[in-house]
Write a structure and sequence with these properties.
With 499 residues, this protein is of the alpha/beta class. Helix content is 25%, strand content 22%. A six-stranded antiparallel β-sheet has the order 17-18-19-1-2-20, sandwiched between helices. The chain has a five-stranded mixed β-sheet with strand order 15-7-5-3-16, covered by helices on one side. Strands 10, 11, 12 and 13 form a four-stranded mixed β-sheet that branches. The relative contact order is 0.21.
């Protein structure tokens, strides 16, 4: 995926690259932070247990670096080989010990069918169709009963406290409910119809959402500032696109990526579509928010192993994967529906029990770092990284992180791409509005791997600079200081105040 499409400031649409000038991958190291910003740094030097940096015990917003906490807890508690298993089940009296389904001569199954969703973030409509094929292969043509969707794995809200309301239509805030299908995200297009005319929304055939538009076409030079695309997201997965859309030379449609608002309704709608495709009739579709006993499994969709899912989460900084993995830790740890409260408690408990790390006064509200309510110190994050550093021969975690100038969200990061930092930084990024963080591991000039945390909060620019950064005409100026500090760590020097 292109680096621009992944940028969170772009929100729910992808901006064609030729609208903006390229941003140089190089950034000049500058010895001073952005005025007014809050910087927290904590790092170790080779063969030295002393913590160096500044503001090491200041609570700051971790943003997506919190995914390291989620990933570590998941690997420690669930293991690299853990998989998500979404199942299709029938009433026990409708299947024998080998799982063979009993139907009458007309292909009627007399009883309910249960689909148990387990929060698999990689589950797709293709997976769903394969799962339902287990009924088709058994000769089922009619269900004389209901289809029950078990969504009891996760409980409570499907979006975290403090998530920005205006981000709710955006795919990077897709809700991690028990039912996840196609990442709970819709990809669509907006087709301009000329300058001054309302653009037409275009959906893939059969997509179970409603999409309307009153967005007006404008010339590319007039796009931006007070004239941008915006999305309103309503109940039952209804979207309305408003604002402006550039009319490009070849009249290309603009791609949209939209988060569903109601994952349960999303699951009901796709269930209806897929069973109708398979020509299997049924009475109704019902939701179950408590485990349903008395069923026998006849079909299973198993995810890739956890280490592959965790690597995807960390490389793409995927928030849905992070919350689904974090909630799964809680569901397995407590054997209860995973609410956000249970999830953060489980993350704390696992780190304490398996790594002897006490998160203390850190404030966690989700598993992905989207909430600005999350607060941790650079010191505490350094403690987590040092545990990983000292135990990586057993837990094999560092291989899951992006590498500067090579992979994931570090592939294009201007502060780390060029020598001597390129390939020598393995780390997790973390970005929210006015927040830009980086933490992980540095291979220093002497070849020793050391952990580091570099947090920058409260970043604010004048309006012109903010717009230039937003539209990719310049790299964010704060990256100059980040580059400077990382070079000090690479050179094994002491910067700022040492502790």
């Amino acid at each position: 995926m292109n680096k621009f499409i992944k940028n969170k400031f772009i929100k729910f649409f992808a901006i064609p690259l030729f609208l903006y000038s390229s941003v140089s991958s190089a950034i000049v190291a500058t010895p001073n932070p952005i005025p007014g910003s809050e910087v927290g740094v904590a790092y170790l030097k080779p063969n030295d247990n002393k913590i160096y940096g500044q503001n090491v015990d200041t609570f700051m917003h971790p943003a997506s670096t919190l995914k390291v906490v989620t990933g570590l807890a998941a690997i420690l508690y669930l293991g690299h080989d853990y998989t998500f298993k979404t199942t299709l089940e029938v009433a026990a009296n409708n299947a024998d010990a080998q799982g063979k389904v009993a139907t009458d001569q007309n292909g009627t199954l007399h009883g309910n069918v249960l689909i148990k969703f387990v929060g698999d973030p990689s589950f797709t409509t293709k997976s769903f169709r394969t799962l339902v094929n287990s009924l088709s292969k058994a000769g089922v043509k009619n269900i004389a009963g209901d289809i029950i969707l078990d969504v009891s794995r996760f409980g409570g809200l499907s979006k975290g406290s403090g998530w920005s309301w205006d981000d709710t239509p955006v795919c990077f805030t897709a809700p991690a409910g028990s039912a996840i299908i196609n990442r709970n995200c819709v990809f669509a297009q907006l087709q301009p119809n000329g300058i001054g005319n309302v653009a037409t929304p275009k959906l893939a055939a059969g997509s179970p959402i409603t999409l309307t538009s009153d967005a007006v076409g404008v010339s590319p030079s007039n796009y931006g500032g007070n004239c941008e695309l915006e999305a309103d997201l309503y109940m039952k997965n209804q979207y309305h696109i408003t604002g402006c859309v550039p009319v490009l030379e070849k009249n290309q449609p603009w791609p949209l990526s939209l988060s569903v608002s109601d994952p349960d309704q999303w699951a009901v709608d796709w269930t209806n579509i897929i069973f109708n495709e398979k020509k299997i009739s049924f009475n109704s579709i019902k939701l179950a928010r408590a485990p349903q006993p008395g069923y026998t499994t006849i079909g299973v969709i198993e995810s890739a192993p956890l280490d592959e899912l965790a690597k995807y989460m960390l490389h793409r900084s995927n928030n849905l994967y992070a919350d689904a993995i974090a909630k799964t830790v809680a569901a397995e740890y407590y054997k209860l529906p995973a609410t956000y409260s249970r999830t953060t408690k489980a993350l704390r408990a696992v780190l304490k029990q398996y790594a002897n790390i006490d998160l203390g006064n850190s404030y966690l509200v989700d598993g992905n770092g989207l909430s600005p309510h999350n607060l941790v110190t650079p010191h505490k994050m350094l403690e987590i990284l040092q545990f990983i550093n000292l135990n990586d021969d057993k837990i094999h975690f560092i291989k899951l992180l992006p590498v500067a100038d090579e992979s994931g969200t570090l592939h294009w990061r201007a502060s780390t791409r060029n020598p001597p930092l390129g390939k020598n930084v393995t780390a997790k990024t973390g970005t929210l509005q006015n927040v830009s963080n980086l933490m992980g591991f540095m291979r220093t000039k002497s070849g020793v791997r050391v952990p580091f945390v570099f947090y920058t909060n409260a970043i604010s620019y004048d309006q012109r600079t903010r717009d230039l950064v937003k539209y990719h005409k310049i790299a964010s100026p704060h990256l100059g200081y980040e580059r400077y500090v990382l070079e000090q760590i690479y050179d094994e020097k002491v910067m700022g105040v040492d502790f």
